[in-house]
Amino acid sequence: MKTDIEIAQEAVLEPIGKVAAGLGIPEEELELYGRYKAKLSEAYLGSIRNNPQGKLILVTAINPTPAGEGKTTTTVGLGQAFGRLGKKAVIALREPSLGPCFGIKGGASGGGYAQVVPMEELNLHFTGDFHAVTSANNLLAALLDNHIQQGNALRIDPRQIVWKRCMDMNDRALRNIVVGLGGKADGVVREDHFVITVASEIMAILCLADDMEDLKRRLSRIVAAYDYDGKPVTAGDLKAVGAMAALLKDAMKPNLIQTLEHTPAIVHGGPFANIAHGCNSVRATKAALKMADYVITEAGFGADLGAEKFFDIKCRMAGLKPDAAVLVATVRALKYNGGVAKADLGQENLPALKRGIANLEKHMENLQRFGVPVVVTLNAFVTDTEAETEFVRSFCEERGCAFALSRVWEKGGEGGIALAETVLKTLAEKPSGYRPLYEEQLPLREKIGVIARQIYGADGVDYSAAAEKQLRKLEELGFGELPVCMAKTQYSLSDDPGLLGRPSGFTIHVREVYVSAGAGFVVALTGTVMTMPGLSKNPAAYGIDVDGDGKITGLF
User: Fold this and answer.
1) What is the pLDDT of residue 108?
2) Are strands 324-329 and 402-406 parallel, antiparallel or unpaired?
3) Taking CA atoms, which of 83, 158, 339, 546 is between 20 and 30 Å from 460?
4) Is 506 annotated as catalytic?
């Protein structure tokens, strides 16, 4: 059986100008990064603003398991299937982070015969957007420390610096560090921290900004520290905005690539959904909606994280109204949720499937809370039995959700035609009544409580003493009406990664709360989730190599 990278490397790609021409994009409106990647020009983005708007389809999933779900694979395959049906469709995805690529998760370009390409370039440096975010983030950190060194006119309290440095790599040793060691000229000694680039507020801002002016407004609002009176010190106060915006100028432009079947794919931005808001850029989604009749996008991890933030943060801020949601699961993952060991998932086990399907049921209920019609798809494996598949089909249809099998990993777009036809039928017959989960006017504590109880199924929320104090301060400073971005483990509906299925009788534990004022949301850290991941004992990096001809191996 061929690996994903082997399939991708054997593909015959079309020049990106030809892919763009299929959408009516003139070649002079492309900023080329080689033959197969391009950024869309600002002039082109402006020229399509008054075009008719297509339908927006979100692809999300159950909580991830070691058995695999295939959310990105399904997204790509569904887009390819729309193309085979003669529909004008565009896929809108996030860019992969280097951290997972060299860690456990691997890349994020899909799999099998449902991939976006060039796979290696996408998963590594791509067009440099993440490097630009990293540089802008760390420029603000450098200007802040330099301001303190040069006399501290803003009276920044070194004990209340909240801006962290970042890098796009899993490196646990950088979570807690000390800077300024050495002589007097080397800065003020203080504790500092790193987050992974995808958790940087700059990444969130890039993905939520409408244009350069909006980007600069958002950058100026970033709270980097507090002064000795407890008042916020912003990036605007530190005179950092213009230089940060200059670093982000090209990163603001969406990237155009293609699938294995030459379906256009706009890939832009990449916040994680467990520690950030988990959606590709607003600019990319809005552009895609003006370029195609159907836009298939995805949100990170399970529907309790990515989809909730897509609906409550991205759609709310951008004025987007999604038309349908596709919920991805596998028989194997559902049996894993039902207590089956990974080694035994290939054997038929209806009792375990009946236990584990409670996880799927909760995500179905959650999506229905947002008023969006739901299509459930099983990403099929050869070990799935007819009895298992039919049990899931009946379970979904009894609960008002359409159902379709997906075989896109094996067959590409052809394997997604049944799913595409089911989505099209749902779009035609079930109008969306999209609505956010909560009103922005609710106090922060109540918004957190609504998400914890209604989406996670918790009995309630408890707060550390530090979180209690932070909540009070943020509301006093006027941030109380912002939406909430929950940072939580992706592996469970709870904040305990070991609680599979549909846990009950648990409490969500909030240990820290802080504002991302530029992004426009408040972040609540729960459980033990980290904003700087670490590497495993045997990271994927061990298996990655490049030969003398420049051919990369080991990416997945």
Assistant:
1) 77
2) unpaired
3) 339
4) no
- CA 232 to CA 226: how far, in whole Å? 4
The answer to whether residue 381 is catalytic is yes
Q: Which H/E stretch holds residue 296? A: strand 294-298
The helix-helix angle for 350-369 and 386-398 (nearest 10°) equals 30
Residues with Cβ within 8 Å of 124's Cβ and at least 6 positions away in sequence, in order, are: 98, 101, 552
Percent of residues, the chain, with pLDDT higher than 90: 93
427 near 474, Cβ under 8 Å? no
Peptide linkage before 232 cis (omega within 30 of 0):
no
Point out the catalytic residue in the list 126, 163, 370, 381. Answer: 381
Catalytically annotated residue among 8, 245, 273, 287? 273
From 37, 39, 71, 407, active-site residue: 71
The band of 556, judged by pLDDT with boundaries at 50, 70 and 90, is confident
Please check the confidence at residue 1 and state whether its pLDDT lies above 80. no
Cα–Cα dist 178/72, whole Å: 39
Q: Which residues are CB-neighbours of 6 under 8 A, at least 6 positions away?
A: none
Q: Is 73 a catalytic residue?
A: yes
Catalytic position from the list 37, 39, 55, 94 = 94
- 130 carries an active-site annotation: no
- Which residue of the set 82, 102, 130, 301 is catalytic? 301
Active site residue 94: yes
71 catalytic per annotation: yes
Share of the chain above pLDDT 70, in %: 100
What's phi and psi for 465, nearest 5 deg?
-60, -40
- Which of 73, 234, 285, 377 is the catalytic position? 73
Q: Which one from 409, 479, 506, 521 is the annotated catalytic residue? A: 409
The number of angstroms, rounded, from the C-alpha of 240 to the middle of its chain's C-alpha atoms is 27
**Exactly one of 84, 87, 88, 105 is catalytic; which is it?**
105
- Residue 495 neighbours by CB under 8 Å, 6+ apart: 488, 489, 506, 508, 509, 526, 527, 528, 529
Predicted confidence (pLDDT) per residue in 49-62, tens digit: 999 999 999 999 99
pTM: 0.95
Considering only residues 108 and 296, tell me which one the structure prediction assigns the higher pLDDT. 296
> Given pLDDT bands bounded at 50, 70 and 90, which one contains residue 105?
low
Q: How many whole angstroms separate alpha carbon 14 and alpha carbon 272?
A: 30
Residue 436 scores a pLDDT above 90: yes
